[in-house]
Amino acid sequence: MIVRSLKDVIGTDRDVKAPTWESRRLILAKEKVGFSLHDTVLYAGTETRMWYANHVEAVYCIEGHGELVNEETGETHRIEPGVMYLLDGHERHTLRAHTDVRTVCVFNPPCTGREVHDENGVYPLLTEEDA
């Protein structure tokens, strides 16, 4: 059994920061449970372009307001507490954070904690063996 609080993660190597977001990685590949779990904040007034070519991601908004744009179709969706989205088709997407937007995200395959978005918004497919 693993019990871990957000306080245990903040300020450690599991607390990954980028110019438009911060991702606190609660469960990683090294836990060997088949997924990773992240508490992520996208900063107010920012726009983050992403494309998870190597991962499926489920996102559940728990705080804030923003807009999700499917870059492949042009569709837009309001993001607010209680809304989830699933990137089951590896869609290129942009999240515009009108306020700080806090989400809980699940990735499969699991992230190792070392991933950062490349110039296309893609996380590389890393494994614990790559460490």
UniProtKB/TrEMBL annotation:
Its EC number is 4.2.1.108. It catalyses: (2S)-4-acetamido-2-aminobutanoate = L-ectoine + H2O. One of its GO terms (molecular function) is ectoine synthase activity. Keywords: Lyase. It holds the Pfam family Ectoine_synth. GO terms for biological process: ectoine biosynthetic process. The keyword Transit peptide does not apply. The keyword S-adenosyl-L-methionine does not apply. Pathway: Amine and polyamine biosynthesis; ectoine biosynthesis; L-ectoine from L-aspartate 4-semialdehyde: step 3/3. Catalyzes the circularization of gamma-N-acetyl-alpha,gamma-diaminobutyric acid (ADABA) to ectoine (1,4,5,6-tetrahydro-2-methyl-4-pyrimidine carboxylic acid), which is an excellent osmoprotectant. Belongs to the ectoine synthase family. This is L-ectoine synthase. The gene is ectC.
